[in-house]
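Chapter review: from sequence to fold.
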Amino acid sequence: MTNTEDTEESQASQKARSSQKSRKEADNSTSSKRRPSPMEVLRQARGQLAELTGMEAESVSSFEQTDDGWALEVEVLELERVPDTMSLMASYQVELDSEGQLTGYRRVRRYERGRAEARRSGGR
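The C-alpha cell string follows.
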C-alpha cells in the first residue's frame, strides 16, 4: 500500500468514527431526556403561571405527580389592600406535563388573606 492510500484510508476511518460518535451523542440527548425533579417542576410552574397571569405565586399548597405529569394548587395575591389582611388571594389549579411545561390552569377559589376557611362537616 502506498503512503497516499494509507492516509486516505486513515481519513475515511476517522470520518466514520466521527460520524458514529455524532449519531451516538444525538441519540443520547434525545433518549436521555430526564424527567425534571419536583423542585424544578415547582419553580417552572410558578414562573410560567406568573408569566401568564402577571401575578406572582406566594405559595404552593398542593403538589402531586399524576399519570400525565403534575398537578399543583398555587396561592397568588390578586389584589393588594391595606391592611394586608384584607388583600384578595386566589387559589389556582395548575396542570403540567411530565416535562414540567404548563398545560392548563384555572382559578378555583378567591378569598381575603385574613379569612380562615369555613369548617367542613366531618370535623375537618
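Two observations follow directly from the output. The longest strand covers residues 69-79. The first helix runs from residue 3 to 31.
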